Amino acid sequence: MKWNLRPAAATRGIWHAADLQHLLAEHGLQVSAGKMSGLWSGQPLALKLDDLDVICVALRCQIGELLIPEPDRVAARVDSGHCAPQAEPRREPCW
Fold this sequence. Notes:
The chain is mainly alpha-helical.
């Protein structure tokens, strides 16, 4: 998945992380400066579904504007043998 927060915010006239941070706070989501930096400038490692709901409400957007599927990345992983079938059942997920 591609995290698309900055472009989604920009289409709504939000150009700075601090502006989005204030908007999220108005909708009940307090985000630390460190977490906001990660949300704004990169791809978050983890994000609560409830937080995604607040972000969508605050930006008046759909989840599909924030999370963009990248099926080619899945195919590339399979082609590289990373998720090759195992003789025995896999005990942990193939990430």
